[in-house]
Amino acid sequence: MSSPRILLTRRWPAHVERAMAAEFDVIFNENDQPMSQKQLAEAMREVDILCPTVSDRIDAEVIGEAPKVKLIANYGVGFDHIDLSAAKSRGVAVSNTPGVLTQATADIAFTLLLMAARRAGEGERELRAGKWTGWRPTHLMGASLAGKTLGLVGFGRIAQAVARRAHHGFGMKIAYYGRREAEPEIAQRYQAQFHENLHSLLRISDAVSLHVPGGAETRHLIDSTALKSMRPHAYLVNTARGEVVDHTALTNALENKLIAGAGLDVYPEEPSIPKGLTKLENVVLLPHLGSATNETRIAMGMKALANVEAFLSGKPLPDPVLL
Ligand code: DGY
């Protein structure tokens, strides 16, 4: 391939953009606004490699408009925004950036859990509004985490990093639900108890953190029935994908105190926030910050770059997405 052209759909940390531009002919989305489907399709006609993010929708139509594109090197680990079967049928390879955002995302899951359980968002809003009247024994009492059970839905890399914080740092008990039981030494590390049934996990958990991929298989895994299985004093944390939760059911559960609270970093139609949530006190809302540290965002870019380099030199992709 002679002088390959690469499209970055959003601005990346300057360090990685420089590294990419030093080697390749790179097209940047200068104003860093999300590209419409039409803009994407048009831009992709001219390029050999596409580097999208979770804020793009790389559907069959967009892929169909890009005869030259041979690799989609995603800037991020999740790839539910890419139509993999369209990529496969067009002979387009796909890579992602696993591993490098595990710790940062686990930090945000734990931030949300602590903020929800200790009512930190409520407290901050009260203080900034000038409504704090001073210390009193019954002011904004939350829940302690020590000794409580954290239920992890999915038990991959990020879930295990959350388990480490919860078990070793905060003295929580760990239970998990997944497609299969973890290796004995991993389960042992956190004394994690396996549940093959989601509802049995939800029934015994004081807090639940979601760590499953997005997409059709997990859409609305947490629906009204699942929320009813949760304990009334329990918290729900989502740093995975918005569509895993039925937000109408969640808003109803929060309004009617079916659960104590929630902490969310992801939403089904970002950047819009499901109706009703911003009015509730018992939910903490973050703007998809899971991987947002300087170190992590640079590492994600370097990983995407390594995949591009490997692809262009005919080597196996370091991080292929199985098609
Ligand atoms: C991912 O990588 O999938 C995150 O959601 C964005 O960092």
TrEMBL record:
It comes from the Bacteria. CDD domains: GDH. One of its GO terms (cellular component) is cytosol. Signal peptide: none annotated. Residues 111-290 form the D-isomer specific 2-hydroxyacid dehydrogenase NAD-binding domain. One of its GO terms (molecular function) is hydroxypyruvate reductase [NAD(P)H] activity. The keyword NAD applies. It holds the Pfam family 2-Hacid_dh. Gene3D superfamilies: NAD(P)-binding Rossmann-like Domain. InterPro entries: D-isomer_2-hydroxyacid_DH, D-isomer_2_OHA_DH_cat_dom, D-isomer_DH_CS, D-isomer_DH_NAD-bd, NAD(P)-bd_dom_sf. This is D-glycerate dehydrogenase. It comes from Altericroceibacterium endophyticum. The lineage of its organism: Bacteria, Pseudomonadati, Pseudomonadota, Alphaproteobacteria, Sphingomonadales.
